[in-house]
Design goal:
By secondary structure, the protein is mainly α. The chain contains 14 helices and no strands. The chain has a single domain (24-209, 226-430), classed as MFS general substrate transporter like domains (Growth Hormone, Chain: A, Up-down Bundle), CATH 1.20.1250.20.
């Protein structure tokens, strides 16, 4: 993400600050361009997420209905994730990223026109949310698969940390900006501005040079055969069931954790701010920005964790995340809420970065994108279900019960993972 170098984008000083705290040489021009494109595109995505949830809460009094809108935002991962991961291991990853970003820009411009023409806002928002995520489902595994083509060894974890940290750096400003934009601009104008960020992201990604010797795996014939999809995922499952059971266990823990926390982050926190704190979108944006700062702090700290502590660090990150997320709805004081949000976000960043690095370091290269796609399919299926389910719990039993239900899953998953890890290490010590 510190790839802004000579382009002088907003946030460059923060990215250089992060880079100075990650030991070893610079990441290089191509990584800087790739991560810079993700930085800019994520700014637009963060603004859209706030616009989507707040505008929907203004239009509808039903928590379940708004939860269904969030469901549409994440459903494409379940529908298309496996296929998109397979494609990103077979096709030019850079072109996939560029094409998906341009599609997202065109989609938002069209959505702005439909809103101006008087179409039902919730229908337009639901369709846009679904299609934006469909495009992201295509380029997200491509980005993760491209990183190990451009970085190796310690540089890879640095690249993951900078990717995560720079995305959350933009998250510091984007939610606040989104909240302010909602106060002064109509939604169609905001969508048009977001489209511009996607176009810029596509341009930066287009400038990345991928070494030919490290090109993505492709069949000798150069043709895609759909039966290969089943064969390659069967091969991936054999790897996860055999030599890489540790990666499979990590995937299970992360999927279970996301199933619990996703609805809290995407739905319950906005409801909590709007209906229980009686605050506006600017306060929601500020809370999300403070959480982004916490994520940046976690990204900086994650590169200091020694390799032998990474699995345990990932699990402890999830444990702290769940405990603090459950406590977030208890205080009424904004300062306390902001402090809890900062710390829990740092813990979540550590878990995310260590998990991504574990996959990239331990999985065979031809399975990296498919592993991320398979994980994303499972995790985002849980994410899609989490929001409407917790919205229903909040409507029936109150916001506190919904927060507790969402936070319980990552705590249970982390404790189970720590027990499994201890048992595996004891078995390894006892082995002849």
């Amino acid at each position: 993400m510190s790839r802004f170098g000579r382009f002088g984008f907003i946030g460059l000083s923060r990215l250089r600050w992060l880079g100075r705290r990650i030991p070893s040489p610079g990441l290089g021009r191509d990584l800087n361009l790739l991560l810079g494109g993700q930085f800019v595109g994520n700014a637009g995505s963060r603004i859209f997420d706030l616009v989507l949830i707040w505008f929907a809460l203004e239009l509808s009094d039903s928590y379940a209905a708004v939860g269904f809108l969030v469901f549409l935002r994440f459903a494409p991962y379940a529908l298309f994730g496996l296929v998109c991961g397979w494609l990103s291991d077979r096709l030019d990853r850079r072109r996939l990223i560029v094409g998906a970003e341009l599609f997202r820009a065109i989609l938002l411009v069209a959505a702005a026109g439909l809103l101006l023409a008087g179409m039902a806002p919730l229908v337009v928002l639901g369709a846009v949310a679904f299609l934006l995520t469909a495009a992201r489902t295509l380029f997200q595994p491509a980005v993760q698969g491209l990183l190990p083509q451009l970085a190796h060894g310690q540089a890879l974890i640095r690249a993951n940390a900078v990717l995560h940290g720079s995305i959350e750096t933009v998250g510091v400003a984007a939610p606040v900006l989104g909240g302010l934009l909602l106060l002064v601009l109509p939604v169609p104008a905001i969508l048009t501005l977001i489209a511009a960020t996607f176009i810029l992201s596509a341009g930066l990604s287009r400038a990345v040079h991928v070494p030919v010797t490290l090109a993505p795996y492709a069949p000798a014939t150069g043709r895609l055969q759909w039966r290969d999809l089943v064969d390659e995922y069967a091969s991936l499952w054999r790897v996860l069931s055999g030599a890489r059971r540790d990666v499979r266990a990590a995937i299970v823990v992360n999927v279970a954790g996301i199933l619990g926390v996703a609805g809290v982050l995407s739905l319950l926190i906005p409801i909590f701010v709007k209906d229980h704190l009686a605050a506006g979108p600017d306060v929601l944006g500020l809370l999300w920005s403070i959480m982004a700062l916490g994520t940046l702090a976690g990204a900086v700290f994650s590169v200091r964790i020694a390799p032998r502590w990474r699995e345990r660090g990932m699990l402890l990150g999830w444990l702290v995340y769940g405990l603090l997320l459950g406590a977030l709805a208890i205080p009424a004081d904004l300062v306390v809420i902001f402090a809890i949000g900062f710390i829990l976000a740092a813990a979540g960043a550590i878990a995310d970065i260590l998990f991504a690095t574990l996959i990239q370091e331990r999985m065979p290269g031809e399975h990296v994108s498919k592993t991320f796609a398979g994980f994303s399919t499972l995790a985002n299926t849980g994410e899609a279900v989490s929001a409407p389910a917790l919205g229903l719990v909040a409507g029936l039993y109150g916001i506190g019960a919904a927060f507790a239900a969402g936070a319980a899953l990552p705590v249970i998953a982390a404790l189970a993972g720590l027990l499994w890890l201890s048992g595996r290490r004891m078995t390894q010590r006892d082995a002849p």
